[in-house]
Write a structure and sequence with these properties.
The protein is 84% helix and 0% strand. The chain has 80 residues and is mainly alpha-helical. The protein has a domain of 47 residues. The longest helix has 33 residues.
Length: 80
């Protein structure tokens, strides 16, 4: 794997994990709001969590495609 592809794969995985951690924090907040009777706000936050989780999955899928060579990142010199 080229250096560029390795960096791309690592960046995608890093972004996915940031979404995962943010999702966990937001899910906890949604549960707290629900327990406090703020169901409408809890549902709105849970929708954000669901979107984050879908994005996390997509990023990890992209990272896997980089690893298998389906997605290739070319260096700037190669594109000129």
């Amino acid at each position: 794997m080229t250096k560029e592809n390795q960096e791309l794969g690592e960046a995608l995985i890093s972004a996915a994990f940031l979404l995962k951690w943010s999702s966990a924090d937001l899910h906890k907040k949604a549960c707290e709001l629900s327990d406090a009777g703020n169901e409408k706000e809890a549902q709105a936050i849970q929708e954000i969590v669901n979107n984050y989780q879908a994005s996390e999955t997509a990023l990890l899928d992209f990272a896997n495609e980089v690893k298998t060579g389906r997605i290739v990142r070319a260096s700037v010199e190669e594109t000129l």
